[in-house]
Design goal:
single chain; about 450 residues; alpha+beta; four-stranded mixed β-sheet; 11 helices; globular; binds adenosine-3'-5'-diphosphate; binds magnesium ion; nuclease; Decapping nuclease; hydrolase
């Protein structure tokens, strides 16, 4: 039965936030000049995370809401370790999981700076669209975890007290973290994030908001077609192997995906997350993943100063957040006209984006994004203390509001599947030696 606790917003108390309690407790050894770079330095042992949050005394109840006011997060850039790829997986044309890189593609630079790619081509006859009514939650990542448990646990087994401890604090999709990073600047779309603690690890899985469902069900034909354009651009620029050329005559199937799984640390939060990667550098001498990965994007061509400013203030924020998180260093952007014809292609280096936007007034700041995300994760840790796969804390945010939450037991929001819970809570001998079948 659902047990709704406080789910009301408290806008009249903008400072009733968790962040104030914690402000001085984090080590912040990167100043703003370090933006765009990662930190290799490790935390000292004394700075490891505390289950109830770094500065919440065990007896005091957690704060009920978290403010998103930007000025609260304008401080030094938090420690963000260089993300390390610990694995990858592929989803085929029928969305089946494979614990390998069969769907990884190779970037082929367009021959001309004005390639005239027609992004509308194939929309009617050569397009298989993933069914976005199906909510996969964390399932693919959980499959990857079961198939690679020994890899993950070998690093941490000595330190772990729980039989199913993974050695990470947070498991989630990169896309959910992207939403957190951009929250202080988001004015249109709210979010719902379901959180469950199991074996000391917090699993974070998005729940579709009512507004998002309505938007999805009421997309115009034009919008539906424009969503295809981004994938079509990938098809024009990506090949199946390092020796071959792209095949623009083929079918675009958005079920297919290659996902990287990375491990990193944001302040005291040990993160394991996965994100889709569009392609890699085809040079065999390219650096190892994720440094050889490339994100493909499309955007309307920029013709006026106002358009340039909007591109910097809104689009580059999303692009930066998405690629910075997994350590993908480059974006290749195809600028198109209103008819879906690509008129120019440009490369953006993630580490140079903060320079590019610095003269823009009213612009976003990487440090605000990262500090907010860090603070949200601390808030979640302090709130979600009950270790139970059937319990979900649903964190909710709407633009111009604080983040609040409600608690749900055995509800529609429970998202850890039985096959995962069973496998993770089975005996220790199975845990280290058993390799579950890949489905
Ligand atoms: P663009 O990025 O060129 O817009 P991604 O860029 O994250 O790899 O996603 C690939 C494409 O999926 C996007 O290409 C876009 O076409 C489509 N897409 C992804 N997220 C979307 C969203 N929220 N709304 C509409 N289209 C989206
Ligand atoms: Mg892309």
């Amino acid at each position: 039965m659902d047990q709704r606790h406080q789910s009301h917003h408290r806008p009249q108390h903008p400072n009733s936030n968790h962040h104030d309690n914690h402000q001085s407790t984090f080590k912040r050894d990167m100043d703003d000049s370090g933006r765009g770079h990662f930190q290799h330095k490790r935390f000292r042992p004394g700075q490891n995370h505390h289950p109830a949050g770094p500065s919440t005394p065990p007896s005091s109840p957690p704060t009920q809401s978290l403010s998103i006011q930007r000025q609260l997060y304008e401080r030094d850039f938090p420690l963000y370790k260089q993300p390390v790829e610990v694995g990858h997986f592929s989803l085929d044309s029928e969305r089946r999981f494979f614990n390998d890189a069969r769907q990884l593609r190779y970037y082929v630079e367009p021959e001309k700076s004005c390639p005239n790619f027609d992004l509308r081509d194939g929309y009617r006859g050569r397009f298989v669209k993933r069914d976005d009514r199906v909510k996969e939650k964390l399932d693919h990542i959980l499959r990857w975890i079961l198939a690679n448990r020994s890899k993950l646990q070998s690093k941490d087994t000595a330190a772990s007290s729980s039989p199913c401890a993974l050695g990470v604090d947070i498991v989630t999709w990169r896309g959910h973290l992207t939403k957190l990073l951009t929250t202080p600047y988001e004015t249109r779309e709210g979010w719902l994030l379901a959180v469950t603690r199991m074996g000391g690890t917090l699993y974070i899985s998005e729940v579709e908001t009512e507004a998002a469902r309505r938007d999805r069900e009421n997309r115009t034909e034009r919008h539906e077609e424009m969503m295809y354009w981004g994938y079509k651009f990938e098809q024009y620029t990506c090949a199946d192997d390092a020796q071959s050329l792209p095949d623009p005559g083929g079918v675009v199937n958005t079920n297919e995906a290659f996902c990287t799984v990375v491990q990193t640390r944001l302040a005291e939060h040990r993160l394991l997350f996965s994100g889709e990667v569009d392609c890699r550098d085809k040079d065999p001498k390219a650096p190892s993943p994720p440094a050889n990965y490339i994100e493909m994007k499309t955007s309307l061509e920029i013709s006026t100063p106002k358009q340039r400013s909007n591109f910097h203030r809104f689009k580059l924020l999303k692009w930066w957040a998405q690629s910075f998180l997994p350590g993908v260093p480059r974006i290749v952007a195809g600028f198109r006209d209103h008819d879906g014809v690509v008129v120019s292609v440009e490369t953006y280096h993630i580490s140079k984006i903060s320079q590019l936007i610095k003269n823009e007034t009213n612009c976003w700041k990487p440090t605000v994004c990262m500090n907010f995300c860090c603070e949200f994760l601390s808030f979640v840790k302090s709130v979600v203390t009950e270790d139970d796969p059937r319990v979900v804390h649903l964190f909710s945010w709407d633009p111009h509001r604080d983040v609040t939450y409600s608690i749900h037991r055995d509800s529609q929001y429970s998202f850890l599947p039985d096959w995962y819970v069973r496998e993770m809570t089975s005996s220790t001998s199975r845990e280290t030696h058993h390799h579950p079948p890949q489905t």
